[in-house]
């Protein structure tokens, strides 16, 4: 890191001595964004140009409707900013940007296209599937590794290395996803991670197979299939009526990112005298008695020694990242965004970024990752009903409070505030959120222990968890493989909960993508998800109806999803013995409804008066 800083200051000194003024052919290494669109509500676009001593170049263009508003030099002479204004009357075509330095000229194309993408908005009707492309399926072995990248290895037998999964592998298994009701695909980040192996906390040298170590924002990792492969995946999804979520990282980049190796300004990243880690303590953002020093440590501290912390308070870097979000949405047909490490970002920047997306795509779902299990703290980072001095505008979030609560409900005994009471009380705090239906619910993800292992591989509890996920309020997401009972804890490393989906690689002895390749228990799990997810998809009352819950009694938790067309009653018996449920106390929701159909068993129930609920079982009743 010190060598990078020395190189930066050397570049500043060289520019200051006037050596950069020597006429030479403008050498342009990066021009971002690489292209743009006419018809954007914001007519302005700022180009960041990177090349040896590019700041001395004069820039011109001759294209109807496009003007250079101004150019700006940065501290590092290897950068130049070009502010363009694109008139509403501008037609599609290729703008020729001419960079001249004395007798030398360099012409760069800047394509302008007509906007075509209209996002398919993600709503409570959807069922999101989270997968890690490197670990799902290998559809093209030719792109597993490249000798001219910093990480040249790929070996599926080594947990810490890349395994070769890619976009083609996903495309080849979209039938599988649709079979059990998935409507929306969320990949962990797909942007280029051209970075070497890094020493993680567990001590092993690990590849950036997960995608969170960006090295070039405008390149999709070619080991997944590159920019064209990502467009192919997006098109395949949209042809099926499915949707695409992109995973954003605004908090940090890789130490191998070209902008960190040659920083535009001294404040492009949050630099400390020595390595300083974030505190991870979100409480400092709400503490009325807290300090600016603690808030700065949370936001400006580094996530890892090899992940430089981005300074989004720099207005040019902020514009760069906001434009990248807009560019990705149009370029790849993105329908929604998930934002990594949300609480570590500068919130004013995040509001700007969210607003820019929502200005162009008003109903787009944007949800963050804020690993906070207390609604009293979580609500600060989304649109909320609390009179905070600063208001976040994020529409939704990964619902870590309910994730934690369902885990407790299935692993803790019934008590005054434990077991299913914990689940009830967590959802009772929905009053914090402006729109609880935009919370994204889940049982596990790529950063947690696998759900099946959390519940001690108890299949009855597994069925209860799945049933809760697909009947509670919000937008459900499932982590890849949970539908076929993938298990493990993060011991010794995260790689244990990111194992390959069996059947996605040539030579796999089993194929979990097919019923024939799954065990009887795995098929039972898959069929449960399939039945309930498809029922949910076809039952607006279940995904869009009002959510009404009753105070749990004697280990039994009851809630309803209902509208004028239909009433769904969900009964969760968390006891280890059969329980008789007298339904008179639910009269305000069951009035006029005398019978039911058990959605999971298709058994008819002729009377709602007294119900015998088996031990550790959840019923989903469509009331008649």
Automatic annotation (TrEMBL):
Residues 1-25 form the signal peptide. GO terms for molecular function: alpha-amylase activity; cation binding. SUPFAM superfamilies: (Trans)glycosidases, E set domains, Glycosyl hydrolase domain. Pfam families: Alpha-amylase, Cyc-maltodext_C, Cyc-maltodext_N. Residues 130-536 form the Glycosyl hydrolase family 13 catalytic domain. Keywords: Glycosidase, Hydrolase, Signal. The keyword Cell cycle does not apply. GO terms for biological process: carbohydrate metabolic process. Belongs to the glycosyl hydrolase 13 family. This is Glycosidase.
């Amino acid at each position: 890191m010190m060598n990078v800083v020395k190189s930066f200051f050397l570049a500043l000194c060289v520019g200051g001595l006037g050596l950069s003024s020597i006429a030479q052919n403008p050498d342009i290494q990066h021009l971002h964004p690489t292209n743009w669109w006419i018809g954007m509500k914001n007519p302005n676009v700022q180009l960041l140009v990177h090349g040896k001593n590019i700041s001395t170049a004069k820039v011109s263009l001759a294209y109807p409707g496009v003007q250079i508003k101004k150019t700006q030099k940065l501290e590092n002479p290897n950068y130049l900013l070009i502010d363009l204004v694109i008139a509403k009357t501008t037609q599609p075509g290729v703008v020729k940007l001419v960079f001249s330095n004395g007798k030398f000229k360099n012409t760069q194309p800047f394509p302008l296209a007509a906007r075509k993408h209209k996002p398919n908005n993600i709503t409570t009707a959807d069922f999101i599937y989270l997968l890690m492309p490197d670990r799902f399926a290998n559809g093209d072995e030719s792109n597993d590794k490249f000798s001219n990248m910093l990480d040249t290895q790929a070996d599926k037998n080594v947990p810490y290395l890349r395994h070769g999964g890619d976009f083609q592998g996903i495309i080849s298994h979209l039938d599988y996803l649709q079979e059990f009701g998935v409507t929306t695909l969320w990949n962990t980040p797909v942007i280029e991670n051209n970075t070497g192996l890094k020493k993680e906390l567990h001590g092993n040298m690990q590849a950036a197979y997960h995608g969170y170590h960006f090295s070039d924002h405008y390149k999709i990792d070619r080991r997944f299939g590159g920019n064209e492969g990502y467009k192919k995946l997006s098109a395949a999804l949209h042809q099926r009526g499915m949707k695409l979520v992109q995973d954003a990282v605004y908090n940090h980049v890789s130490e191998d990112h070209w902008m960190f190796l040659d920083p535009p300004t001294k404040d492009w990243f949050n630099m400390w005298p020595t390595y300083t880690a974030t505190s991870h303590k979100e409480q400092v953002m709400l503490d009325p008695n807290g300090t600016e020093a603690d808030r700065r440590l949370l936001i400006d501290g580094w996530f890892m020694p090899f992940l430089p912390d981005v300074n989004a308070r720099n207005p040019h870097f902020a514009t760069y990242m906001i434009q990248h979000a807009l560019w990705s949405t149009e370029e790849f047909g993105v329908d929604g965004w998930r934002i990594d490490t949300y609480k570590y970002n500068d919130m004013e920047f995040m509001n700007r970024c969210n607003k820019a997306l929502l200005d162009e795509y008003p109903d787009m779902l944007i949800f963050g990752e804020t690993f906070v299990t207390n609604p009293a703290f979580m609500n600060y980072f989304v649109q909320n009903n609390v009179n905070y001095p600063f208001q976040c505008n994020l529409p939704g979030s990964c619902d870590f409070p309910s994730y934690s609560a369902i885990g407790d409900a299935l692993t803790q005994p019934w008590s005054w505030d434990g077991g299913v009471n914990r689940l009830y009380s967590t959802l009772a705090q929905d009053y914090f959120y402006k729109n609880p239906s935009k919370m994204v619910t889940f049982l596990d993800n790529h950063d947690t222990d696998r759900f099946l292992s959390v519940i001690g591989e108890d299949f009855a509890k597994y069925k209860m968890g799945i049933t809760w996920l697909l009947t509670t309020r919000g937008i459900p997401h499932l982590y890849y493989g949970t539908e076929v009972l993938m298990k493990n804890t993060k011991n010794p490393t995260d790689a244990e909960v990111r194992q390959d989906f069996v059947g996605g690689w040539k030579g796999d002895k089993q194929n979990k993508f097919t019923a024939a390749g799954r065990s009887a228990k795995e098929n039972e799990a898959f069929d449960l998800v399939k039945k309930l997810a498809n029922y949910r998809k076809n039952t607006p009352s279940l995904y869009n109806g009002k959510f009404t819950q009753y105070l749990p009694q004697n280990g039994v938790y009851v809630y309803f999803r209902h509208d004028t067309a239909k009433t769904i009653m969900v009964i969760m018996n968390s006891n280890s013995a059969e329980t008789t449920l007298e339904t008179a106390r639910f009269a305000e929701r069951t009035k006029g409804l005398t019978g039911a159909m058990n959605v999971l068993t298709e058994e008819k129930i002729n009377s709602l008066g007294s119900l015998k609920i088996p031990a550790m079982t959840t019923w989903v009743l469509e009331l008649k």
